Amino acid sequence: MKVYLINYTKDAKELLIFSKKTRLKMNVNSFEDIKNMSEEEKNKEIDYVFGTIGSSWEFIDYTFLIEGVTRAFTHQLVRHRVGVSFAQQAQRVVNMSDFEYISTGNIKNNEKFFEIYKDGMDMINKYYEILIRKGAHPQDARGILPTNITTNILMKINLRSLSSMLNTRLCIKAQDEFQDVARELRKKTLEIHPWTKKILQVHCVQHGNCAFPNYEDCPIKKKNLIKNFDRKKILNVWESKRSEYQPKEDK
Question: Which residues are catalytic?
Answer without folding.
Answer: 169
